[in-house]
Write a structure and sequence with these properties.
Strand content: 15-25%
Helix content: 40-55%
Number of domains: 1
Radius of gyration: 14 Å
Shape: globular
CATH class: Alpha Beta
Number of strands: 5
CATH topology: Rossmann fold
Strand order of the largest sheet: 2-1-3-4-5
Length: 133
């Protein structure tokens, strides 16, 4: 990266500490800055505080479900343009549709392929950069 260019910041939200650790390490190794949150309320607070470039959001969270977090982020002028990648064990069509309705830009089910996730992260960040230019 050229001097003065900061690495994209990703807010990683999951209640599973193993996912936070392993996926956080993988994202950092790929050149991203990572902020973590383990529940829905912390996710909302971190999103507003840090204004990340992308949010990876689990659905089954304590304190506030991922769908609710996504909907609230999309209603807030400060965070509404941040792309959201939902990463969850819920794989039913209704869950995927609800994810899209509440603001998800992409949806990946667990267990997931790390390379597929990294490719999706890259695509979402590139699309977000293009749309804000």
């Amino acid at each position: 990266m050229s001097e003065g260019t900061k690495s994209p910041q990703i807010l990683l939200v999951d209640d599973d500490p193993n996912i936070l650790k392993t996926l956080g390490l993988r994202l950092r190794a790929s050149g991203y800055g990572v902020i973590t949150a383990a529940d829905g309320e912390a996710a909302l607070q971190s999103a507003v505080t840090f204004l990340p470039d992308l949010i990876i959001l689990d659905l089954n969270l304590p304190k506030r479900l991922g769908y609710s977090v996504s909907r609230m982020l999309k209603l807030d002028a400060r965070t509404k343009k941040i792309p959201i990648l939902m990463l969850t064990a819920r794989s039913q069509g209704a869950d995927i549709r609800l994810g899209a309705l509440t603001g998800a830009s992409a949806y990946i089910t667990k267990p997931f392929d790390s390379q597929e996730l990294l490719d999706t992260v890259k695509q979402l960040l590139e699309a977000s950069t293009i749309s804000t230019e």
